[in-house]
């Protein structure tokens, strides 16, 4: 049998595919980001969605003001400790399957402000991040590059197998713990330990 | 605009016995400021706002300064360096929209950095001070007496300490790797 029937059929106007590929093709080209920005990276995110860079070319231009309608959270900017519980709560309110882009040095690790008294050292302390985009701030092209990487990741996901889009088993609540305000810092369970300069050197 | 020296004289004429001190500024800006006694600061502030020749109707900026205990260079005739006690300071920048002059810088100082940190709020005089005095209360710990809504502004309500004080050390994360 011909191992690549598509090559023979396409000249005749016939497309051969799987339900999985068709489904992921639709999902990856209609990512709806949650409409919020935290700092200067948000300016670059806005620029990426405007006519010059035009995120609509990748189907991700429909910024939703409600987390119930969003698939993608772009954490664009410095996350303060006071803001972190709201970001986690918004992520919990998004329906599965959902994805997170950490945009810029601050969202990844706190960036130049990481030793500040009110700066969270990376949003991945509390929610899982799919794509990290370094930069301070990243240019709109970098955000589009990150978006394309996320689309490739979605295209690889299976519908019903290990690695399928739903992150958690059905028995789990699907909610990530919202950090609480302590006397000096946020308290509550985390996804990872904060990194320190000493530990990295 | 009258010079700070002239404004000081004007205040002295209107408030007999109220000590107003001229704080010199040795930097290139060379802009002296007026140090007001906290007890009568609100009356003097209202005078600065309402006096027909001054009319400082706009407080554009309010900020805090933390002065730790320090040694000052001896002045001529003094044998040794003077030790200046620690205090907190609130600094107001005033402009006059009506007469188009400014800025005038006025300062209020607390008694120390621990027990006597209350200053009169100038929000009743200039409404624009409200959020900035809340921010100073939050970050420096100055308590503004007479402020309509003195809550923390940037940090959360049960936060302990005042992060912009010079001796503030952020609590080290107990879970962080050594």
Described by strand count, sense and barrel closure, the largest sheet of chain B is: 5 strands, mixed
| Strand numbers in spatial order across the main sheet of chain A | 1-2-3
Oligomer: heterodimer
Percent of residues in helices of chain A: 25-40%
The CATH class of chain B turns out to be: Alpha Beta
What is the gyration radius of chain A calculated from CA atoms?
A: 19 Å
CATH topology of chain A: Rossmann fold
Mind telling me which CATH architecture of chain B this is?
A: 2-Layer Sandwich
Count of discrete structural domains of chain B: 1
**The named CATH superfamily of chain B:** NADH:ubiquinone oxidoreductase Nqo5 subunit
Shape descriptor of chain B? globular
The topology string of helices and strands of chain A comes to: HHHEHEHEHEEH
Summarize the structure.
The complex is a heterodimer of chains A (201) and B (178). Chain A has 201 residues and is of the alpha/beta class.
Overview features:
heterodimer; A: 201 residues; alpha/beta; Rossmann fold; three-stranded parallel beta sheet; two-stranded antiparallel sheet; 7 helices; 5 strands; 8% strand; B: 178 residues; Beta Polymerase, domain 2; five-stranded mixed beta sheet; 3 helices; 9 strands
Descriptive notes:
The complex is a heterodimer of chains A (201) and B (178). With 201 residues, chain A is of the alpha/beta class. Chain A has a single domain, classed as Rossmann fold (3-Layer(aba) Sandwich). Chain A has helices at 5-9, 19-28, 40-49, 84-93, 104-109, 140-156, 197-200; strands spanning 72-76, 99-103, 131-133, 180-181, 186-187. A 3-stranded parallel sheet of chain A has the order 1-2-3. In chain A, strands 4-5 form a two-stranded antiparallel sheet. The N and C termini of chain A lie far apart (56 Å). By secondary structure, chain B is of the alpha/beta class. Chain B has 3 helices and 9 strands. In chain B, the strands form 3 sheets. In chain B, strands 1-2-7-6-3 form a 5-stranded mixed sheet, covered by helices on one side. In chain B, strands 4-5 form a two-stranded antiparallel ribbon. Chain B has one domain (4-75, 82-145): 2-Layer Sandwich (Beta Polymerase, domain 2), CATH 3.30.460. In chain B, a hairpin with a 4-residue loop joins strand 6 (87-96) and strand 7 (101-109). Chains A and B meet through loops of A and loops of B.
